[in-house]
Known about the structure:
Chain A has helices at 17-26, 42-51, 63-72, 88-100, 115-128, 142-152, 180-185, 188-191, 196-212, 306-309, 322-342, 356-374; strands at residues 4-9, 31-37, 81-84, 104-107, 132-134, 159-167, 216-224, 235-242, 247-253, 264-269, 273-277, 283-287, 293-297, 380-381. By secondary structure, chain A is α/β, with parallel strands linked by helices.
Amino acid sequence: MPKLKMGMVGGGEGAFIGAVHRMASNIDGQIELVCGAFSSSAEKSQRSGEALFLDASRCYASYQEMMDKEAALPEDERMDFVSIVTPNHMHFPVAVAALEAGFHVMSDKPATLTLDEAIKLRAKVEETGLLYGLTHTYTGYPLVREAKARVAKDDFGTIRKVVVEYPQGWLADADGDDNKQAAWRIDPAKAGVSCCMGDIGVHAANLAEYICGIEITDICSDLNTFVDGRTLDDDGSVLLRFNNGAKGVLMASQISMGEENGIRIRAYGDKGGFEWRQEEPNTLTLKWNHKPAELVRTAAYGEFSALAQAAMRTPAGHPEGYLEAFANLYKDFSEHVRARKEGRDVAETAKTLTGIKEAVRGMAFIEHVVKASEEDTKWHTLPQY
Amino acid sequence: MPKLKMGMVGGGEGAFIGAVHRMASNIDGQIELVCGAFSSSAEKSQRSGEALFLDASRCYASYQEMMDKEAALPEDERMDFVSIVTPNHMHFPVAVAALEAGFHVMSDKPATLTLDEAIKLRAKVEETGLLYGLTHTYTGYPLVREAKARVAKDDFGTIRKVVVEYPQGWLADADGDDNKQAAWRIDPAKAGVSCCMGDIGVHAANLAEYICGIEITDICSDLNTFVDGRTLDDDGSVLLRFNNGAKGVLMASQISMGEENGIRIRAYGDKGGFEWRQEEPNTLTLKWNHKPAELVRTAAYGEFSALAQAAMRTPAGHPEGYLEAFANLYKDFSEHVRARKEGRDVAETAKTLTGIKEAVRGMAFIEHVVKASEEDTKWHTLPQY
Amino acid sequence: MPKLKMGMVGGGEGAFIGAVHRMASNIDGQIELVCGAFSSSAEKSQRSGEALFLDASRCYASYQEMMDKEAALPEDERMDFVSIVTPNHMHFPVAVAALEAGFHVMSDKPATLTLDEAIKLRAKVEETGLLYGLTHTYTGYPLVREAKARVAKDDFGTIRKVVVEYPQGWLADADGDDNKQAAWRIDPAKAGVSCCMGDIGVHAANLAEYICGIEITDICSDLNTFVDGRTLDDDGSVLLRFNNGAKGVLMASQISMGEENGIRIRAYGDKGGFEWRQEEPNTLTLKWNHKPAELVRTAAYGEFSALAQAAMRTPAGHPEGYLEAFANLYKDFSEHVRARKEGRDVAETAKTLTGIKEAVRGMAFIEHVVKASEEDTKWHTLPQY
Amino acid sequence: MPKLKMGMVGGGEGAFIGAVHRMASNIDGQIELVCGAFSSSAEKSQRSGEALFLDASRCYASYQEMMDKEAALPEDERMDFVSIVTPNHMHFPVAVAALEAGFHVMSDKPATLTLDEAIKLRAKVEETGLLYGLTHTYTGYPLVREAKARVAKDDFGTIRKVVVEYPQGWLADADGDDNKQAAWRIDPAKAGVSCCMGDIGVHAANLAEYICGIEITDICSDLNTFVDGRTLDDDGSVLLRFNNGAKGVLMASQISMGEENGIRIRAYGDKGGFEWRQEEPNTLTLKWNHKPAELVRTAAYGEFSALAQAAMRTPAGHPEGYLEAFANLYKDFSEHVRARKEGRDVAETAKTLTGIKEAVRGMAFIEHVVKASEEDTKWHTLPQY
């Protein structure tokens, strides 16, 4: 079987996350970018595509055109799946269009602009039977996966306490609000009901659930808008209850000056605890009460869970980074697509890919964390959708 | 003027914190232990005192005896102040007895068993006009003081967000509940209404207020008891509002396995942020949005605020620890006592010593954080007492 | 202009570094693998190539065949350059064959098995006028480049002292000597006159010269073989003199148990110093005598030298790793190839790519550090070749 | 038995290390400062002593007077031992005078100005049969002792490689050469044949031998003087051979800008390795080839060797610092003095106190490292004296 063929929507000149998706999908040499609708400007889309070495005929003026024209190509020529890297408000219409045209979807997060859209999108995924992946990047780090595997085999006992945080500082000044990356995030029309929680808080919530294998059931939310002139949150703290009785704290902030992308999780069970943080992602610290802490390090040739092993590319001490984590999501998604094409089971290690279920949960978290923040009662139940 | 003369109540054989107070008061050679009622057992008190090189006649059978007999000694022989290092429930009666007998008091924290006692104690302090110091140890670290000084001169701008935490793991197992240190902390009769918040949460609250120069006005509290068979909290998370509009999160835990005494504070203003943690107390990290983070390091000969400078003893790279921080509280308290004896003003650098005001605030925090945890409404106002 | 076309020699099934070169050359989507001679076994080469989605006709049985057949293809079809990822002893013959067939060469390090070969290779490069790149990986890290740029603009003053080290532990046991990666490294026929210095010590020497912009002139060498049964060094320490009067220490070790790939450099000038280490490559620590240390962090949107800026792909806090560093070498090499094809100047930021000059210097270092170790005199001059 | 009585020579107003000795001897409340000759100026000595609460009659005008007058006091009044905290050139005459007057000696390091003096001092110690302790401070850290204990019970196997370093930056500028602390260190008349090696290099050598239980037999030395106008070394690197076949590197520097007191040791045996550094002294990292690194942390109630246990004062997470390490040397020395007075064996845990043997070895190291640096031959044997 040849390389998988990817089409991209969004990610033209000046965009940030599109380039990340392309680099991530490139690393393993399993996926080939064959077409794209890189911008809502036809000219810009054309120019962007050619700079990516695409055939001019497959640089489309709109995502609708891309779906139509690609669907009309012979099966062995047309794209296998669509990668969606637009601002948030376009995720839903593009995903629906792709699914309706018969293409699998790999989407940047959050899945949609609203919870309602997410529920509709799930229906569409179920109706078409096509594949849907959501790039909750941090789940791609090898040691995040190792932590998940160790929780699953009860190394830490029953999880009692989870502290997950995602501090950033880059939106601490109103001055930066007109830069391209900031502008859409603070605009409700493009970002939805939340800035901070929608952009990064939801990553933290997802990471906690992914690793610990438990689900948030209730939240006590306190969102803040520190910078004048904004309508959405730029900071927030949330107390958590989980379905196994664990408690937790989730903090996300975009006004924590000097912080970069400090997503970090600490969790404690009744046997032990662990800590992982993205800024030094190749160390997983295991914590014990009556013996020394241990430093588990990323290492392609070490003794790890199969889940983690499948996500490593370099020997110990040769650090793996954000792009490799992102690449693992594309690797998993590719495995799903290939297994589908080959009519076989998906490899076990690819099964933790975040998908439509997490998409709906994420949107539910975002909408309810905003609602809960406005309430006077302490605890707000997160409904199941 | 000779060394100051200290009497001690509590801290006999097998005790932990009494030895800490003695070492801390020893370091600078300004204070001499002259007497003590080290145990409620007369024999044990005697034996403890003699092991500390005390004259047998000044190893008392009870704190009442100590107050009486010392008060009867000539002024230049009797103790200058009492150091109280008993379990929590004895702090109040001993402090009152000492004040009534005319002695200044340096007390281990928390000041009393209940808020009510703290208010009464404050009245007694005011009535007698004597000195009262409370050992909120972490305020003695040089770089905690440097952080306080830098906040005060507006280096970080208006503080918006404070995250303060104190994770421990040592009470994660019921197994340890019969060791001496654990037993009284989990016993309401000896510890008061709270274990975790009373023992360590209050340190975190105090540290945040001390450094940032702002006061907690409202709390949203979620306390937990994870270990079966306990009646008091062994973990808790609290959302905070401060009187300058800042928000915060306070986490304290005694079931966070593998954590030691991880008290740590991060705060962010509208100009910059900082981080300090006790486990590596000689580094204060300054965080900025558009320039590199800076590592300020303890160094007796560096350029620091007078407040921090007065708290340092060694050159950069020669780490100062917990005992030196504790010693700084005794150093400050000694300065207050000496200034009083000499009829002069207290040195500016000694004025941040935590005292009866913080004692009352601390007890108010403890009682209200417990009350608030039981309520369904989100925010609970912390009254001024 | 289309993607550049790469042919690969070596890197078939079971190999390690070939996959690294492929991932690194993939990331930016500027290079396409079009052919290869992946193994000395024709069958294995074929199987490896097909797993990489190559056309069967371009999976060659030998590198000689690859050179012949590719050279015979039309110019717009044949490969643009050859990537050499074989064990050390094959680097030279393959590079010569490629150059003679008219192809540019990107070679894994060390360039050749012997200094003599390196000198011959240089002659061949000069004779053909073709491009030659050598993958001294660590020079690809953004903050290594930032350090180089800061030294160049005199931020640290005249460099006086350089400490560079590369500790590993993986060859500490004879037990591992029959694994594929170990076996050739300890075999003089495949690795040359040195194991530890040839494999990793030369990286350390190169890194010091690359960043500091000075050259080693004299060495005092002490190589060791700690594991019985080996003939080559598995550890060594070398004192250094540089051409600007600086002194240094170079340590490399493969028997330092528990160490991973801890290449690290510290250098001190008469104005300040810096430290960088690969295991946390996204922090460059600046050290000053009378102000706090500063932490410079990788960040695609920060204020950096153009050299470093060109080497960054992600925002602050999203760690870049080993593959991205490696990718920067391919990015630089691509720029050289494209500039040559387009008849234009090479971009300034690509000019620090390590090439044939460093190849010869590296081999000279390896041979002389072995010679010097056997001598009784302290200092051994490193000749200019 | 009462507190031990200490007399001090040196350490008057403006001195640094005298205050450190006093604080260190104070901490445990076992030692009382009873007299001193704090300065060569009688008036300054008097003033210094009174500030330390001494009886005016025991503030002596000279060390000779102190020896005479104290020796004439009744046995239960006179000092038990002399603490010597003068600049280096006075260590020898004061120590000899004390021993001849019948007093035990606790001396700051280095023991003497020259090797010859050290040998004579050893003879005097042996002749008098009195106790002699040398404050190699770093041997007092709990985790240094734990490392020693673990090496001794073969946790790491046979030590093969030792890397010990002591970088400082404070003498990088000639500007500081007239400050009091710098001035005597760079003056051969007061510091002896070496500045950097005598002041800090010898600490590094001692630390390596103390922990690893092996002795340096040969050195290859390269000392430097980077700052113009100095006659002594301000930097140096030394290759080492040990009596068990291990190799090593010792680096000491006073011109490494931005470095504080970064003494650090890494050692590797054929089973595992470890690392300890003073700037974060409460962590000992254990390194293994096939399992995670472990972080052993200072903790008064943990499972440690008796040697380390005896050196700890606080629970895990409450950092112990430089003064506590220093206090452990006084604690050990006190135990020797008390055991002598009580006619009993010294406690096992006090037996690693560095004494006259290490004093001679240290001076031999200093003199030979200077000699060796001037030689053209690579290896220089360190004679046994």
